[in-house]
Amino acid sequence: MMSSPDIITLNNVRRTFRSGHTFSWRPRIVKAVDGISFSVRRGETFGIVGESGSGKSTTARMICGLERFDSGSIIVDGIDVGRLRRGDRLKFRKILQLVFQDPYAALNPHWKVGDLIAEGMRVHGIGDRRERRKRVLALLDQCGLPSDAANRYPFEFSGGQRQRICIARALAVEPRILVLDEPVSALDVSIQAQILILLQTLQRELGLTYVFISHNLAVVEQLCDRLIVMKSGRIVETGPTEEVIHYPSHEYTRTLVEATPIPEPSRRRRPAHV
Ligand SMILES: Nc1ncnc2c1ncn2[C@@H]1O[C@H](COP(=O)(O)OP(=O)(O)OP(=O)(O)O)[C@@H](O)[C@H]1O
């Protein structure tokens, strides 16, 4: 059977939050995600951009099965995320892993880095202890970390190195998809560039699909093949990254582009591979 070119498909997905005081007469209804549809192709980097509050993180969390949705459907590698049962969650995590913005908060400070990376493998029953140790060392190397990192604690590392640890941990279970929610936003610009290069290299080597959430169009421009622009829970623009950034058709995208210094001429990178 031919596998579909699309690995993630959202169809008319909505998510509403009630906010405001429990005792207020009129709780405020926030349409965080207001009927969005898009597909992500296997092996591509798909960007979700928009200003703060536009619904990017809610979308990412719904794709990951961490946030329920009110209506619509989300299919990830053939799995209906809306119908994930408790027992399916583990299997789902082997397909899709997440990397968050804050590498400080994401790592348990009491665990050694080697144990942090090996934990997912242990939970998923991958290899025995010896094999897991070997794989931890290979992952450290692949993510540009020294091998003695395995025996050290997260606090001994810089922000960029911690994000490398988070990426190694995500890759440990050999997922097909990484959802990266503002993965470089907390880092210095020079460190950002190194992490982006690492992500590009890993994608090439492992054939990964990335969903990349960012408010920074310069970063998105460097990494993403295609993107959607979100505003108030809706998609206002979609298309190949260069087209959207250099020839935006929506006023909102134009405002985002104008607010971002994007180096010229465009320094994009590698042929998209599927
Ligand atoms: N758990 C929640 N309870 C109430 N409102 C929420 C909740 N999560 C998100 N929202 C609201 O939904 C809207 C979209 O939020 P979301 O975090 O998805 O946006 P975002 O584009 O990722 O913003 P940011 O970049 O600041 O994270 C916002 O108005 C937010 O306040």
From TrEMBL:
Cross-referenced InterPro entries, in alphabetical order? Answer: AAA+_ATPase, ABC_transp_ATP-bind, ABC_transporter-like_ATP-bd, ABC_transporter-like_CS, Oligopep_ABC_C, P-loop_NTPase
Compartmental location: Cell inner membrane
**Residue ranges of every copy of the ABC transporter domain listed in the record:** 8-257
Q: GO: which molecular function terms?
A: ATP binding
Membrane topology value: Peripheral membrane protein
Ordered alphabetically, the record's keywords are: ATP-binding, Nucleotide-binding, Transport
Q: Which family does it belong to?
A: Belongs to the ABC transporter superfamily.
This chain belongs to the protein called ATP-binding cassette domain-containing protein
Upper taxonomic classification of the species? Answer: Bacteria, Pseudomonadati, Pseudomonadota, Alphaproteobacteria, Hyphomicrobiales
